[in-house]
């Protein structure tokens, strides 16, 4: 009987974690979609497509410095937009580190 209770708790926690993960991903995608077009394109090419800045510059037909500026501004906007999620993630990570 005790094993089934532990299993039920584990399944519930996994379901909750999966839901939370999807919620976080949705919020990140929403935040990325709110970015100005050029910033969004640069951040997607950098973080999702793993392109280097010089590759992004070639792809977008802009200078390396402009890529740096777009990505810097995009990250700044995302940090501001997602600050509540980041605080929650840090809190949860801290809980796991204490164990």
- Overall pLDDT, averaged? 83
Biggest beta sheet attributes = none
Q: C-alpha Rg, in Å?
A: 19 Å
Which parts are unreliable, with pLDDT below 50 for 5 consecutive residues or more?
A: none
Structure, explained:
The protein contains 5 helices and no strands. It is mostly helical and 99 residues long. The chain has one domain (2-98): Winged helix-like DNA-binding domain superfamily/Winged helix DNA-binding domain (Arc Repressor Mutant, subunit A), CATH 1.10.10. α2 (37-48) packs across α4 (64-81) and α3 (53-60) crosses α4 (64-81). The longest helix is centred in the first third of the chain and has 33 residues, at 2-34. The protein is elongated. 9% of the residues are buried.
List the helices and strands and how they pair.
Elements: H1 2-34, H2 37-48, H3 53-60, H4 64-81, H5 83-98
Helix pairs in contact: 2-4, 3-4
List keywords for this structure.
5 helices; Arc Repressor Mutant, subunit A; single chain; 99 residues; elongated; mainly alpha
Short synopsis of the structure:
By secondary structure, this protein is mostly helical. The protein contains 5 helices and no strands. It is elongated.
């Amino acid at each position: 009987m005790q094993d089934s209770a532990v299993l039920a708790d584990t399944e519930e926690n996994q379901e909750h974690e999966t839901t939370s993960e999807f919620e976080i991903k949705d919020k990140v995608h929403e935040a990325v979609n709110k970015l100005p077009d050029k910033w969004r394109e640069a951040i997607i090419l950098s973080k999702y497509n793993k392109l280097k800045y010089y590759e992004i510059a070639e792809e977008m037909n802009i200078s390396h410095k402009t890529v740096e500026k777009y990505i810097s501004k995009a990250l700044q906007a995302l940090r501001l937009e997602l600050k509540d999620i980041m605080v929650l993630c840090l809190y949860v990570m801290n809980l796991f580190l204490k164990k």
